[in-house]
């Protein structure tokens, strides 16, 4: 979804500096170094503790000039990454180091804009040390290094040395005109360092992905394949850019190959979980289509001999590739061919789910499919899915979070466009459930949970508005005191967590019910919330949020 905490800040200044700033920004942003997200979203002291090992090593290099500090002369000098770490641990530390370098490069650009040459030089020295450390670390645990890698390493190291020398000369010059002319050279060198750095990181990540996929391809043992898939999953968790690399190198093809071999059945859940991660990017989706991945997923879901865990992870892949937030699902033509059997299997999984997690995955897949194609709603109606979902909501051990209720109410909202759905809702006591969902509140201060509660309130109001075209549903809603609750949600911003989307949905539902039962509203409510144009009522309710204290 949208909001990159690791966005680089612009700034080069002087003579063409803006263009160079944009170039550096694009280079750094394209790395999508995922560790930044992990580092930024934690307490500042914890972040400092994470960085301490890396930063102190940098200072040691500055002071000791990279001399070994081992007591034994023949003992190999230990770097940050010791042999006790796994490849994934090593790679994550490498990514942290890379993120620090990218951050330092961005800060150099900012200081350069302000002509703070002393800071520019000290930070350039620090970047130089970090680059040397990063390369040494990678070469310590890397299983193979290509000629291209060695060339890039040399180019980056040479350019960093040139960069340091440039900034040192700038420190020794006080003439403004000379500094102004040198600044453009520093800008160019900084941009080149960023380019080489980006290319090196891209090559490192590509080689790691290739190595893991080669291990999967050549391995004949269960343990070796399991280890490679686990490492690939960890790599995919590091962000969309890593997923693109894995997909580009044939990761989706290799993983589906595992899912088509009975000897690897025990690895299906882990393999499918990895596929779900990789298929968040367009490259992964294209690869899935090329290898008939939809057909493979349908076969897994409909095969009763598979475990519930395998079915749940297959449902997770379906949920991922049908997500309404993705803009590149149109090419999934084969999905329509297999949709009926997939929907049938998912409904069965919802009905037989032994835990809240399994139900969440299956219902999320169904919810996304109802957005994906309207025919899915008709299939759900034929399968009595409404009754199954409403029954599950009465089991607090299965539908136990706002996230699960969000999926259920999404399905009901999308099904409510069908006229036949109203009678199913009434028979399953669905109006009562929708009324309860209007009271959805987060149990903690978690932002994601609060957002889920808002979605539940909004979609339950939307569903009531759609279903209330049926007089029987409207009458049931009025008897359950839905009108007073909708009025309170409109008038009290705290009840709806200051959500405008909830407000609009509640106003729409209130107006629909007011037509069916005008006696249920006081005159002031009718004059303010029903009689005016929707936009005027909306503005009236949002103005209630203002404070003049």
Automatic annotation (TrEMBL):
GO terms for cellular component: apical cortex; plasma membrane; protein-containing complex. GO terms for molecular function: cytoskeletal anchor activity; protein domain specific binding. Pfam families: Insc_C, INSC_LBD. Residues 40-84 form the Protein inscuteable homologue LGN-binding domain. GO terms for biological process: apical protein localization; asymmetric cell division; establishment of mitotic spindle orientation; regulation of asymmetric cell division; regulation of protein stability. SUPFAM superfamilies: ARM repeat. This is INSC spindle orientation adaptor protein. Gene3D superfamilies: Inscuteable LGN-binding domain, Leucine-rich Repeat Variant. InterPro entries: ARM-like (IPR011989), ARM-type_fold (IPR016024), Armadillo (IPR000225), Insc_C (IPR045789), INSC_LBD (IPR031938), INSC_LBD_sf (IPR038205), Inscuteable (IPR039921). Residues 97-549 form the Protein inscuteable homologue C-terminal domain.
